[in-house]
Amino acid sequence: MPAVRAVLPAAPSAALGRLALEPPPRFPDWPEAEVVRSLRSVPSWVVERVHGAVELTLDGLVIAAPPVTGELTPPSSGSFGFLSSDSEAEAVRETRLLAQFRPDLLELVAELTAAVAADETLAPLLVAEGDEGGIAAAHGAAYLSIALVTTAIAAREAGQPGVAAIVGTALGVAAGLRRAAPMPAGYAEAVREKERAEYLLPRSGSTSVAVRDHVFALTESAFPAFGDFAENGLAEAAAGGVVIRTGMAAGPVPVSVRVLAEPPAEVETLGWEEVVDLSWHADHGSASLAPSARVGVTTPPWPGDYRVRVHAYGRDDPDVESYGIWVWAAPAEPPRVHARADRLGHRLRGEPEPALVDRPEVRYRWIRQSRLAVAATVTVATGLPAADVVRGFGADPDRPKPPAELRQAYADPWLAVLDLGGVVLVIEENGYLGSHEDVLTAISRAGAAASMFWNVNAVTRLSFARDGELLASFEPGLGEPDLSPETAAALAGLDFEDYRDLDEKGLVAVERFTGRGLHAEDLEEIERAGVAYRVPGA
Description:
Shape: flat
Structural class: alpha+beta
Number of helices: 16
Largest sheet: 7 strands, antiparallel
């Protein structure tokens, strides 16, 4: 075993050593030897590196051992078909082949290796020390070297001395043992030291948490116990973490996490309805979101006192519910509420609920599930027939095309229109001509025109024109130009500084200015009509 172990490279050995930490592999449904199944779960680079590293050593290894294969069934005579791929590692292919005509040999090797690894005589050789990588590599190499020597003994005696099959079988056996065996003593502390050495501040990330029973948590281990959230209506510090009260009962909710190197200079309340600071003591650190969060940012891997700022939005409206959590090291101090605006928070605190706020942009959220969700321009023009509006965009109204054909072309911009009698809706999927001044002045010469453009990079433009004159064109939320009373009225009550529902707010302004908005059934009608127009050379 020491001779074989000495030639095993550290990286693949460490990968084997860490298998106990990984989720159980998903094996194919077809019948297959357990050793082969386990081998398939080993990364291909590990198989190739190990095969190359031990090939010469195994070839030259002289082993004296008592018989171990006397009870095996002799290999059957005859022929059979076997399919392999050039991309398959030689050790995997030869192990699969061996499993076809000597399946009991693989089972015997697995039993023998497990028994040898459990023998107290070898306990000193299984001791692993050092940093995380060193412990993982030593532990993986110990099990793999036992499996390699045991497999070599049994395979040679059974008349199957091929090194590739020995390596593949040993890897499959060792992988199965490592998945079932615990990590060695000291590994958890080594992992902690590695995390601390590599942890850098600040850091941030976004993820999704599967809410259950109206709560999720930032926790070090098990889900913390929590109360009724009556103190601040949003969050509670508990033993082991911080619990956040949600509006939705269950389902995924987006959460962003920031871990700061120092306390934030300002409190960010814009775009949030509830914001609360509270103190939390970490017993060991590395708290993460639970339950069932995708991989995200963890808190610092050190014990100590931390300040946690929880931001919440949309708890009264699960369609847009979201959270932001900021964490930084700070001495304990009383909780502090920076914003309290949602109705749920008022109920939990035992306060009278505020009046419902009319938010006209909510009725445009259907856009997010439409063809226009990622990028589009919606333009509404009054006073001109549809043919003149089409010409104003630079297209020929006498040359219609099916929308499906233009979607596949990718050569020129295109548009679809809906004539509502005095009002014309223009839809550009992933287009922006309706935001151009020359287009807006042309199509507004007999009335009004307004457009809202957005794209995947969060670039937007809201524009208004009347009687052939551009009145305003700007990116909402980045400062408004001098507005006429008419355009100011179209924007009244729409909070563009709050980035949420920004596209929808723009569509509300377009509707107010022109007197007609875009409805979901309008898109359906355009699709049924199957008529669109290409804008050549635009």
